[in-house]
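Re: the pair you flagged

First of the two:
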Amino acid sequence: MTGAYSVTFGRILNRLLSPRERLLWEASLARNARDYAKGADIVREGERPAALRIILSGWAQKYKQLPDGRRQILALLLPGQPCDLDLFTVVRTDHSLSAVRRLTIAEIGRQEAITLVRQCPNLAQFLCWSEIVTAAIQREWTINIGQRNAIERVAQLMCEIFARQQGIPASGGGECDFLLTQWQLAEATGLTQVHVNRTVQELRRRCSVELRNLRLFIPDFAQLASIAAFNANYLHLDEAEPAVDRAAALFGGGGAG
């Protein structure tokens, strides 16, 4: 697993889990790894949840689709991120999950997941934290579609995807994976594909942002963030240690060391 977003999850796991718990967790991920081709559905809306899913490599997308075929991408899931806790909470899933491109995901079945949580009590704290971060991202996506204009929406999503993989640069910019097509970018921002194309061209003109060969190039992150009014607080990127300390205080956890 690579990228700053994965590192954040990794740091929390390393602090929370004891050496024995980490061995059990990593063995379960390896044992249950499964590959999906680009665009393949992993879960379809209305199905009974059957597994606890963790992204190992590639990106996944949550989406909902109307009867006439219109589709909205609700969330992007990057390496190291649990997909959801549906397995423990609902009878039928209310959204679909698919591979953005080639994807490797761990699918831990119900009984093994229950056993794993019992054997690794600190794991529950990690899963709880991941759901809190996922909900924070969802709130930002809601305001993105509800209040930002087209160029702000696309700039915001670019900033988020960059920050989740690379963190926030102290100066200048950099590059990161960007696996979305312009059609998927449109579905994630509530715009038409034509509008997205024009918006990307405008961002290229204004701040030299480029999408090329499944990579996003941002020469000046601060400039792009200013266009989007981007504030990375909702990503909780640097909160691994404080989050673990609070969990330890509340639950007596933190068995790593």
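Second of the two:
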Amino acid sequence: MSEDTLTEPQELHRFPCDQCGADFRFDPAQGRLLCDHCGNTAEVAGTGPWAGGAIREIVFQTAISDRLPSQEMEETRVSTCPNCAAQVEFDPGVHAAECPFCATPVVADTGANRHIKPKGLLPFALDEKDARTAMTDWLGRLWFAPNGLQDYARKGRKMTGIYVPYWTFDADTKSSYRGEHGTVYYETRQVVRNGKTETVRVAKVRWRPASGHVARFFDDVLVLASRSLPKKYTDALEPWDLSALEPYQPEFLAGFRAEAYNVELDEGYQEARSYMDSIIMRDVKFDIGGDRQRVHNIDTRISDMTFKHVLLPVWLAAYKYRGKSYRFVVNGRTGAVQGERPWSAWKIAFAVILGLIVAAAFGYIAAMNQ
């Protein structure tokens, strides 16, 4: 099969065991392919102590000008959730399922999705059991969380392992700036307060012009390429150890799902550029120095702008509990947990009543001691 042959991801991500013919899955505990039917294991192609090689970056301007070669592109078939718009792969035999991101029923009619191939991924390090334990422990530490949801999450259906799409951007920046350096000094004044004359110190700032140059190389600025989950949750799963990225191999996806990106490259770049600009502003203020800084102008020149599409591992749970949807995400490497904050109305009511009783008791004791 040539490198740019277009195939369906469901076919790419199924690997038959060479002993019994059942499907392998990637086992995070062993870091190998595992057949649950016969126990046979196999290495992921292209891994091991003598494998690897650097993950090649792609020149940003080439991609944004639609000049990427065909081998950098692929076409997959995905199902789109009508509620959260997630684009997720399903097995060929599945005709209806629930969206793993929001628990909405999804009819698995597939559509073509042409996109830039992933260059690298972080393999799952936690299995489903470990991820579920991390999630239920997190729920147990939340004040006023309903006990029923924690029990439901502990005993409910299995969590879904999903590779979530991200962009990373590298850039070499050189910036010229104009601004002002401020030095704080104090003057004393006589003021009258309540009929009395007092001496007070008043802060003043002495400004002088400042200009200069700063430079910074940005490496792997990470931008979420999905809209399926609130960004505040996925951002809170950081940090990701991007130095451990593996070159993309479809075997890592065996037994897992992968989401297609729906934040396009140019939009991802705008977010990355906003982050870079904030860091450059911080560098400029540091370079100006002094007690206060004013920045009037920054002119930044960017060179060697590159990017790559990577997949990061997330365990996902979406539950409908008493008519409301709850979503929880677990970092598939570290076990960090984020999600919707559930509240128990009766626990809150009980705490309020208890607080009123305690306040009334203190009030009664204070009244008796008067």
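The longest strand covers residues 160-193.

-B.
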